[in-house]
Amino acid sequence: MRKLLLLTIAFFFAFSVSAQIIGVKTGFTKSGYKINFETPDGANMGEGFHLGVFAERPIKENMNLRLSLTYNQLGSEKYLEGEQSLSNGMTFSGTTDMKNEFNYIQLSLTPKFKLGNAAYAFIGPYLGYAVSATYSGTITTDDGTVLMEADGIDLFGDVAEKGMDDYYNKFDFGGNLGLGMNLKNGFFAELSLGMGFLNVINTDSALYSMAAQKDPDTGEPMTEDLSQRNMFIGFSIGHIFKIKK
User: Fold this and answer.
1) What are phi and psi of 226, to 5 degrees?
2) What is the arithmetic mean of pLDDT over 37-44?
3) Where are the beta strands (DSSP E) in 61-118?
4) What is the pLDDT, as a whole number, of residue 60?
5) Which long-range contacts (CB under 8 A, 24 or more apart) does 35-38 make?
6) Measured between alpha carbons, how far is residue 5 from residues 18, 140, 156 in Å?
7) pLDDT at position 113, please?
8) CATH code matching the domain that covers 2-242, chosen among 2.120.10.30, 2.40.160.20, 1.10.3720.10, 1.10.10.60
9) Which of 99, 146, 191, 245 pairs with 118 at a CA distance of 20 to 30 A?
């Protein structure tokens, strides 16, 4: 992981050497996930933040090429009440309250198109690497029996210590698009949307085996093509610095 991170940083700085614009940005992220392109019952978008640096090269009169390196907090929350089923087929009446948190380093390459004097749009791919992932939550029956309780379980480290495969893949690949507005004195504001193309569930893990065997509602076998993809919305503010050549 350290070698990959150093290689990514080196690639970013190599691009920056010939860039005419560099900048920084930060903001809030709302994120969730899709399973087989559908949002599961009780799933809600989690909240996090992002912080990044970028460099831009002019390509045409109304187009720049931007390379961004961003730390992005993704995750989701799930809250259910009433009749439910566990992955092993057990049914109960109670409450599920859980939260997943993923911390990604994302490298994105996005053409940026001017839409006038101040507005612009961008679209392009990103490559992400999860540096950490944690799970917290409880599953409790109506009579107060705790069926499951977790407090910040490391989905990579703790799982590996038990001799199990990681529940999630660390790599992610997807696309993002957005709109931005240049403000005064080099400041700007952006709204972006990202969607992962890869299945982040490790298909060799116990998590995949349990989830793929039975549908939580019917208890019937699910499709063997179980796929979970990241999705996120970001609002950013930042500042650009023009470099004179």
Assistant:
1) -60, 125
2) 70
3) 63-85, 91-114
4) 87
5) 35/226, 35/227, 35/228, 36/223, 36/225, 36/226, 36/227, 37/227, 37/229
6) 21, 40, 18
7) 95
8) 2.40.160.20
9) 245
